[in-house]
Amino acid sequence: MENVFIKEDNSILQAMHTFDASGRRTCFVVDEDNRLLAALSEGDVRRFILSGGDLNEPVKKIANYSPRVLSEDEKTGARDFLIRHNIEGLPIVDERGIVIDTVFWSDAKYKKESNLSTPVVMMAGGKGTRLYPYTRILPKPLIPVGDKPIAELIMDSFADYGIKDMIMIVNHKKGMIKSYFAEANRPYNIDFVDEDKPLGTGGGLSLLRGKVNETFILTNCDILVEEDFSKIYAHHKKEGNAITMICSLRNFQIAYGIVEFGEHGNITNMQEKPEFSFFTNTGIYIVEPEVFDYIKDDEAIGFPDIISRMKDDGKKVGVYPINENTWMDMGQLDELSKMEKHFLDKK
Question: What pLDDT score was predicted for residue 302?
Answer without folding.
Answer: 93
